[in-house]
TrEMBL record:
<dbReference type="InterPro" id="IPR012724">
    <property type="entry name" value="DnaJ"/>
</dbReference>
<feature type="binding site">
    <location>
        <position position="149"/>
    </location>
    <ligand>
        <name>Zn(2+) 1</name>
    </ligand>
</feature>
<dbReference type="InterPro" id="IPR002939">
    <property type="entry name" value="DnaJ_C"/>
</dbReference>
<comment type="subunit">
    <text>Homodimer.</text>
</comment>
<feature type="domain" description="J">
    <location>
        <begin position="6"/>
        <end position="71"/>
    </location>
</feature>
<feature type="binding site">
    <location>
        <position position="188"/>
    </location>
    <ligand>
        <name>Zn(2+) 2</name>
    </ligand>
</feature>
<feature type="binding site">
    <location>
        <position position="152"/>
    </location>
    <ligand>
        <name>Zn(2+) 1</name>
    </ligand>
</feature>
<dbReference type="InterPro" id="IPR001623">
    <property type="entry name" value="DnaJ_domain"/>
</dbReference>
<feature type="repeat" description="CXXCXGXG motif">
    <location>
        <begin position="166"/>
        <end position="173"/>
    </location>
</feature>
<feature type="domain" description="CR-type">
    <location>
        <begin position="136"/>
        <end position="214"/>
    </location>
</feature>
<feature type="repeat" description="CXXCXGXG motif">
    <location>
        <begin position="202"/>
        <end position="209"/>
    </location>
</feature>
<feature type="binding site">
    <location>
        <position position="202"/>
    </location>
    <ligand>
        <name>Zn(2+) 1</name>
    </ligand>
</feature>
<feature type="binding site">
    <location>
        <position position="169"/>
    </location>
    <ligand>
        <name>Zn(2+) 2</name>
    </ligand>
</feature>
<keyword id="KW-0346">Stress response</keyword>
<keyword id="KW-0862">Zinc</keyword>
<dbReference type="Pfam" id="PF00226">
    <property type="entry name" value="DnaJ"/>
</dbReference>
<feature type="zinc finger region" description="CR-type">
    <location>
        <begin position="136"/>
        <end position="214"/>
    </location>
</feature>
């Protein structure tokens, strides 16, 4: 019995590894075990073929989704990525996938294998608050999706019966025809590439192997997600016809506009209007943080409108990482518009004491104006 080694273990990668990580791991191992570098060593050649096969499956999003859900069984019995063509016993592994990528479109798909049309991917748009994006969120969604028929278990045939091999293509899913010097291969018109025909279809799904259902799914929104973040739920899309692999469900995150903060990556921005006395004399204001804590912002004496104050580590958390961004507060000095008689009196007294040195920018500006007008 042949032991089937997990593709991720072969490449030394986690199941969550991205495409770049998988590619780097494959290149390293391919260089290490390439037959030309090992004097034709049979063990190295076998290892080279194994890692090549693993990478050829995992680099393809559809094949990887099928493998994540069904393992090696996804590519057996006409599963769509396995070796053999026409059900033959040849073990070509990754090299048959390379042949397919070059000639597949011209030849109408995989050479000789049954076609299993993978289920469609689905999209779900989810709106969350900025607080949800800060803390993360565990929630449930409901989606209407086609799932495997529970009456026939996805086979499409009436329980107690089974599909029969297609007589037109002899179960291959494809037929060939000679045209001049070329052998043309196309999808079987009788079974539409399935390789099987159902003489007694299931009455519930009418032979399709799928029915419409409403599914409730648990969604984990991690802290730090941003507008446009996409979460993939592998295998939660449309079921494939007659037991074919399902598609994926993609959750697109939309973060609602916040009343106080604007987001720039992991940083948060806020506008804080302060009184002209606080700007002149200095002081401290509090900004309510998304974590519920009050964030103190110190206002130095003489602060001008438009100045930005940065509070480090008070922004958004880093998605799937450590640390937080910063909070940047823009100061706007507000001129009072509703003064009491006493306040006006005090301001008049203050104006009488002004020398011009209190506001050097104003003094410098009007000095330039005076000079430009000839003194």
């Amino acid at each position: 019995m042949t032991t089937e080694v997990d593709y991720y273990e072969l490449l030394g990668c986690a199941r969550t590894a991205d495409d770049a990580t998988l590619k780097a791991a494959y290149r390293k191992l391919a260089m290490q075990f390439h037959p030309d570098k090992n004097g034709g060593c049979k063990d190295s050649e076998a290892k080279f073929k194994a890692v090549s096969e693993a990478y050829e499956v995992l680099k393809d999003p559809q094949k990887r989704a099928a493998y994540d859900r069904f393992g090696h069984a996804a590519f057996k019995n006409g599963g769509g990525a396995g070796p053999g063509g026409f059900g033959g016993g040849g073990d070509f592994g990754a090299f048959s996938d390379i042949f397919e990528s070059v000639f597949g479109e011209f030849m109408g798909g995989r050479g000789g294998g049954r076609q299993q049309r993978r289920g469609a991917d689905l999209r779900y748009d989810m709106e969350i608050t900025l607080e949800d994006a800060f803390h993360g969120k565990q929630t449930e969604i409901t989606v209407d999706v086609s799932t495997a028929c529970d009456a026939c278990e996805g086979s499409g045939a009436t329980p107690g019966t089974q599909a029969k091999s297609c007589g037109t293509c002899n179960g291959h899913g494809k037929v060939r025809a000679q045209q001049g010097f070329f052998m043309i291969e196309r999808t079987c018109p009788a079974c539409h590439g399935a390789g099987e025909v159902i003489s007694d279809p299931c009455t519930r799904c009418r032979g399709d192997g799928r029915i419409e259902k409403t599914k409730t799914l648990s969604i984990n929104v991690p802290p730090g997600v941003d507008d446009g973040t996409r979460i993939r739920l592998s295998g939660e899309g449309e079921a494939g016809p007659r037991g074919a692999p399902p598609g994926d469900l993609y959750i697109f995150i939309h973060v609602a506009k916040h009343g106080i903060f604007d987001r720039e990556g992991t940083n948060l921005r806020a506008r804080a209007p302060i009184s002209f006395t606080t700007a002149a004399l200095g002081g401290e204001i509090d900004i309510p943080g998304l974590d519920g804590e009050r964030i103190p912002i110190r206002i130095p004496a003489g602060t001008q409108s438009g100045r930005e104050m940065r509070h480090r580590g008070a922004g958004m958390p880093v998605l799937q990482g450590r640390g937080r961004g910063d909070l940047i507060v823009r100061i706007d000095v507000e001129t009072p518009t509703r003064l009491s008689a006493r306040q006006k009196e005090l301001l008049e007294e203050f104006r009488k004491t002004e020398t011009g040195d209190e506001c050097p920018q104003s003094q410098g500006f009007f000095a330039k104006v005076k000079s430009a007008l000839g003194g």
